[in-house]
Amino acid sequence: xxxxxxxxxxxxxxxxxxxxxxxxxxxxxxxxxxxxxxxxxxxxxxxxxxxxxxxxxxxxxxxxxxxxxxxxxxxxxxxxxxxxxxxxxxxxxxxxxxxxxxxxxxxxxxxxxxxxxxxxxx
Length: 122
Known about the structure:
Number of helices: 6
Structural class: mainly alpha
CATH architecture of the largest domain: Alpha Horseshoe
Largest sheet: none
Order of helices and strands: HHHHHH
Shape: elongated
Strand content: under 5%
CATH topology of the largest domain: Serine Threonine Protein Phosphatase 5, Tetratricopeptide repeat
Number of strands: 0
């Protein structure tokens, strides 16, 4: 009986230790920004008209995450806003391959670049 109680106490201390580790890691992750998405940052840059910064940040993200749909999307928006249509065309094709559900939007962008229609509404 006393051996069972000792085992239970040991297990409780192990559980408390693991909980402390997980809480500490969670706090550290929140401080460092683990898993934080860049989408909101991209929107803010676009809304403030900081197109060059947006291009720089989306390109940096795409170097490490080449199929990041948000980075591709906002890179296209920035390239079109800065009238860099040839570069936008390349990224539009990448977005269409990365996310086939965006193919309609990609076609609209390409039509707008080719002068067939106005720039698509977002």
